[in-house]
Design goal:
The complex is a heterodimer of chains A (80) and B (93).
Chain A (H helix, E strand, L loop, with lengths): L1 H28 L18 H32 L1
Chain B lengths: L1 H24 L6 H29 L5 H21 L7
The chains are: A mainly alpha (80), B mainly alpha (93).
Chain lengths: 80, 93
Amino acid sequence: MELADLAVGLLLSSISLSIFTYYTFWVIILPFVDSDHFIHKYFLPQDYAILVPVFAGVTLLSLLSVFIGMVMLKSKKKKA
Amino acid sequence: MKHIVKILSMVLAVFAFWIGLLQAAIIPPSYTWLVISTLLIYTVVSLGCYGLLMVGIGLMQFPTCPQEAFLLQQDIVEAKDFFKHKGVDVGSD
């Protein structure tokens, strides 16, 4: 039904918007803020700003390649 | 092609401005690699976020046309009937 579509769409958009604002704040605005401002409490140390996306990207790529490999093996087994 | 070049040059200009600002605030001796890699990762992350956002918005605006669905079901029943009389096997799926 349209309600489920609306709910999932809203959830996806809100997740993407929140990730985008958090990451933008983290990477772009925080380096210009003095180190004793209270806002730094809400953000992880700056090194994580690079590690977390890289780690997530590597995980995504490996999961994708595992999936593709499994599909290829299954199709080869079915043919033979 | 000209559009892409325009957009790319705008993005590059904004990034260069941000790097200049950064160098004015924090004097980095050999931070250049770190800054550029951060910018690259930020671009990829924002592209992924934009894709997710477009998918979410498309989902929210997707029309379901319930009348067309009903008409389609009627068409399917009609077609099944027709083929059953012709002898084709139209077992329920």
